[in-house]
Amino acid sequence: MEYLHKKAEKILARYKNKWLALENVTSAGIGRTSKGSPCIIISLAQEDNAIREMMPPEIDGIPLEVKVSGEIDAF
Amino acid sequence: MENRSVSGIRPVLLSAVQHLLAKPNVVATGIGYKTTGGKKTDELSIVCSVETKVPSATLGRGELIPRFVEGVPTDVHPTGLIHIHQPPTGRFRPAPGGVSTGHVNITAGTLGCLVKRENRTFILSNNHVLANSNNAEKGDVILQPGLHDGGVVPDDYIAKLYDFVKIHFENENAGCFIARGVAGLFNFLARATGSGMRLYPRNMKQTENVVDCAIAEPFEESDVTDEILQVGKISGVAEGELGMEVKKSGRTTGLTHGVIEQVDATVRVNFGSGKTALFTDQLIAGAMSRGGDSGSVVLTGGNEIVGLLFAGSVNTTVFNRIQNVFAEMKVNLD
After folding, report:
1. What is the mean pLDDT of residues B180-198?
2. Total domains, chain A
């Protein structure tokens, strides 16, 4: 698990600027899949099929999950 | 003496309530069975709840609670300061964490907790709560409650802005010629190929933040307390981890609970007026806050502090790691 988390950190570090440069992406972070293993979560301001299609289901064995967070505002 | 009923005592209490509540220390009055020598009797009395019981010798004649009011015995109960039932948008002195506060030019946010720098006590909250998102100067006045919650100048002054970590907004560099050119070309090609994707022109390097925080120095140290509303005292510091159960006490949604769902998160946050800022190394939980909860501290079930809440969406709450906040702000718990 620790090894997979480190792997996810490396992938995130490599790609996050590219992902965050997309207009609809609000965040990218490390989470857990429903089975409990590390994954990368990419959140969107609104549903975006173009981005969903662009994202591979996994990178180097680490799953990528896309979800809609809505706009993130300073509270 | 005849034992009177509740309905018999009610008019007596009603006529005396103002007089009793005006006495120092009295926080509540009501009707209840009198306690004598630690045991509840079957005699009804007017119960005066006080913050702490004080020896009658130290009180002036007018300050003493009379033993009888129109023949009805009184009873004094030490209950401590009552503020659980007061909404966090109210005025608190001393003010705990979890209540409304803000710079005079903002609506309202949340007072996080007390921190120390060089043995001096400060209020910790967000830059966008205490320092109006960089648009403030050291010495600016902080209200409790915040302006939106009826805080008025100068009665509700509680502290002066002392220091803040500047937020770097992305749009500050939006004029960058090359970034605009690259984004423009990408978007032209995207349209040409029918793609819905758009790139924003921005300079990533100079715009990354890790914290949204500021400190303010109370005018009087006795106006603040190291408690957090509905939570109690902070027990220590902990590192936020995936799956950790957390809670916060905030100005808008009060005491709420959540789970850390993401770590190492990079998040784009809207600050209004088209301004956005990018934050790295953030912790993300589900829905446990709304506008006005900014500045709340995020704690474990055992009251260890893990984060400083500052942003969110309908299903997301974002907070800074408290270790980053303490390091950048050069503060500590004690």
Report:
1. 63
2. 1
Contact status, residue B131 vs residue B102, Cβ threshold 8 Å = no
Whether the CB of B264 is below 8 Å from some CB of chain A: the reply is: yes
ipTM over 0.85: yes
Query: Is residue A75 domain-resident?
Result: no
Q: Which domain holds residue A30?
A: 2-68
B313 vs A9, A48, A73: nearest CB: A73
Q: How far apart are CA B91 and CA B99, in angstroms?
A: 8
Instruction: Name the CA radius of gyration of chain A, rounded.
Output: 12
A interface test, pick of B170, B284, B314 with most A CB neighbours within 10 Å: B284
This prediction has a pTM of 0.75
Q: What span, in angstroms and rounded, lies between the C-alpha atoms of A24 and A68?
A: 10
Q: What is the rounded distance in angstroms from the CA atom of residue B30 to the CA atom of residue B76?
A: 11
The answer to whether residue A74 sits within a structural domain is no
Asked if residues B122 and B331 have their Cβ atoms less than 8 Å apart, the reply is yes
